[in-house]
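Supplementary material to the annual report.
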Amino acid sequence: MHDFDYEAPTTLTEAVSLAAKHAGRARMMAGGTDLIDQIRLGRHAPDVLVDVKKIPELNRFALTDTGLCVGAAVPCFRIHGDRGIVEHYTALADSCRIIGGVQIQSRASIGGNLCNAGPAADSTPSVIVLGGIAITEGPEGRREIPVDLFCTGPGKNALHPSELLVEIRFDTPPPHSGSCYRRLIPRNEMDIAVVGVGAAVTLDADGRHFVSARIALGAVAATPLLVKAAGEALAGQPVGDEAIEKAAKAACEAASPITDMRGTKAYRLHVTAVLTRRVITAAVARARGEAVDYRPGH
Amino acid sequence: MKTRVVSTTINGDATQLLCEPRQTLLEVLRDTLDMTGTKEGCSNGNCGACTVIMNGRPVVSCLVLAAEAEGAEIRTIEGVAQGGRLDAVQSAFLEGAALQCGICTPGFIMQSEALLESNPDPDEEAIRFHLAGNLCRCTGYDKIVGAVKEAAKRRNAEC
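Predicted assembly:
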């Protein structure tokens, strides 16, 4: 493996100055489950790996009445194991339970998943539909980037050189909200998504009309994709097949999948519609207070 | 010189070792410490053969830098049997023929130990889901799942 140096700063200031000092030749590492493999494969050759796991701000995990804050280094197992997340940010729990396997979830973080900017990232569609905002820190100070704008291309993100992701913030979903993430993979676990869809819906008090909705796709475009038209197709509509079908159609129109070893373009478009219908339906059930488990393989 | 000293605890023993930042925990266990029980299968976190327990959580050691072991508590397959006695998981694997070539077995045993620590009575679905990050080319998995069920039964009977 490429010969790099290793630093484990204990403060955010130290991390930013390390990043600035090495002028783009330093890489931040949280769980390292993508990064170490990529360095081994020669995709990156950093001078120094900055282990961010000792920085308190990046390990912050706080769920309050007003919202949720997930530090960039918080590992997946802490997220899906939290009852508050399972209840109020369910799509995030769905995603974190299926990223890699248990061993990967011990280390991998949604912050790292986001910064890695893979088109098929499993947590990013969930973060998008839940309205996540990325908080970054750099030599010029703090920025806030809506997560749907964070990934700019395969493996590319909106971070400036010497900038790092500190945390992702969410507002509390309104009452009568529910969310869901599902993906299609050849096996039951471990694979990279062929198609991934996240949905977050808010219903009226009767549970019979959509107030608002957000739908995001993974693995069917150059980046995880927020499909505004799909959300607009649901807003104000009665809950039912007609509205959901319109949303599924909008999702397919927004998707631009490629044909690769995981699936053909046509198959992925078909599955986009199927999954969009299913995740909206599950999100609606959850918004109505029904427990819907995500059991991979079922 | 990038070489650094790492102070860690492995199977309860305080250990100091020299390593380069680019060395993974897997590499250091096998090549520096001669603890070859932990196996290298894929080097990219897909097969689970290199699974160890780090600070109470199962991890794939091929994706952990040795430098990260600083201050950590690491448990490997070498630390499972106590005083030469196989534990419930190891006995169940052996008696249940849950291994053939054995290369995946240390990883499966460590992952199973972690599972039973977090869920002492898992059903088949929970076992298969939890072991999804461990691949076996020989057994077809059924006997492994059976062994974990048996180990859970034996452990729970002991209590």
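Residues 4-79 of chain B form a domain with the Ubiquitin-like (UB roll) fold (CATH 3.10.20.30).
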